[in-house]
Amino acid sequence: MQTKLTKLESKYSFFPLVNTNQAVEKKKDYINTLTVLFLSAEIICISVFFCALYYLRISTEFDGHHTLSLFTLPRLKEYLLFYFLSVSMYLIWSYKYQTFSFTIRKSFSDQLYKIIKAYSYSVLITIGIAFVLKIVAYSRLVVVGFWIGGILVSGLLHFLKRLSFISLARKGIMTQNVLIVGAGNVGSTIAAEFTSNPTLGYRVIGFVDDHEKTHENGIPILGKTTEVLSILKTQPVDEIIVTIPSERDMVNSFIRELRKFDVQIKIIPDMYNLVTTSVEFGQINALPYVTLVKTPMRGIGLFFKRSFDVIAAGIGLLIISPILLATAIAIKLDSKGTVFYRQKRIGKNGQIFHMYKFRSMISNADELKEALEKHNEADGPVFKIKNDPRITRIGEFIRKYSIDELPQLLNVLKGDMSLVGPRPPVSSEVEKYGDWEWRRLEVLPGITGLWQVSGRSDLSFQQWMNLDLYYIENWSFALDLKILLKTIPTVIKGEGAY
């Protein structure tokens, strides 16, 4: 027995060093405690809300003519069954979507969307089970109220949890220490993303790379890939991100050793550029394959997108008609020229169409553009000036809050544009496109898009293109809804528009 123990201690001689970093362990315990506390608070709030709904329903039913007690509450067993089933289903879906964890890896709108899905599925499944059990006594007030109210209650608690995480992350309490394997383009991009977004809760402590460098973008290179194990013994690492999986023998060898450490391992795949595009997986007998598709925006999904565009644009025009009228009058009183501005833009598959906007510049703005080219502040083929002298007084206001874009709802009804999509370029921009940028023309252009809700004109041309291509390759109806929801606060703030 002693001999076996000696062999084990020799084989895993570094085990006493594993999990002995008190700061790392304390942070994990802190995260687990906060996760349990917020989850418990959510369950308590949901329970109280459901009890209030149930009491409201039965009190209106009896209208104060009967004294209610715990032993005389009507249909109590049926409603308790609904409560336990729906809450259990919600917790299961929350676990599946990982919304209960005390971390931030995606936007709040994405988290809220998952909460809505979790409640929707839980209520529908519970109603289905009740139907099978022939329970038809549930009040619509309780069912619909629980669905809507639960979303609001959980959404509020998740928002508070998010604020708490951001506050703790800024103080460094919730920060995950990351070691990046590979200081190439992918590794540098990941490090820059983490550095520029501290609220994500990541801190890059360094790289490991076999090239003779001491640092990359100000982040130290702690050693070579063969020295990963020794680095883990001396550095408090929570997570390792491998960005050079093409070196398979090397990666496989140290991953076998890394499994002995209590660290998370993430691997950026070889086909990084491929898997970020839209792909379909298939199999011919035992042979797997990957099919590249231009965009998931096709078939029934495209039909629903177009139907939503038409309905939403039509309703939107009716609702905002007073704003349109007031803007038209203000433009006419402010400067000479037409109220609307028609500009030739390039649409889907290179088709030319006229895009409508409220005029925000003086009438001869296009003639003055050539003289202002030297003042262009945007990179790439785009022309942008923050303090453009051609903009009118009213124009400055309506551009800041994107009111000048509202007439494009007419383009949506005509079928030239969509509510969400890449911005339609002018012909002079398209002439400078490479093969890569041309992919923006594979779908209908949109009034709003990912770049508008991610910084608008403050973004570089490269970032703009990346966001548009990400949208094309990852389109879904849910993504459109998220972008539309994000557009509202972005427009109200008026940030990044010029």
What does the secondary structure layout of this molecule look like, with pairings?
Elements lengths: L1 H10 L10 H41 L13 H22 L10 H25 L7 H31 L5 E6 L3 H12 L5 E7 L6 E2 L2 E5 L4 H7 L4 E4 L5 H11 L5 E4 L4 H4 L3 E6 L2 E6 L6 H21 L1 H14 L5 E7 L5 E7 L6 H8 L20 H8 L7 H7 L3 E3 L6 H4 L15 E3 L12 H13 L3 H17 L5
Parallel strand pairs: 1-2, 1-5, 2-4, 5-6, 11-12
Antiparallel strand pairs: 3-4, 7-8, 9-10
Helix pairs in contact: 2-5, 3-4, 4-5, 10-14, 11-13
Give a concise summary.
The chain has 17 helices and twelve strands. The protein is of the alpha/beta class and 498 residues long.
Low-pLDDT parts are 1-20
Structural class: alpha/beta
Listing every helix as H and every strand as E from the N terminus to the C terminus, the arrangement reads HHHHHEHEEEHEHEHEEHHEEHHHEHEHH
Q: Mean of the pLDDT scores?
A: 79
Sequence of strands across the biggest β-sheet: 3-4-2-1-5-6
Domains counted in the coordinates: how many?
3
Quantity of strands, as a count: 12
Helix content: 40-55%
Radius of gyration: 28 Å
Strand content: 5-15%
Q: What distance lies between the first and last C-alpha atoms, to the nearest angstrom?
A: 76 Å
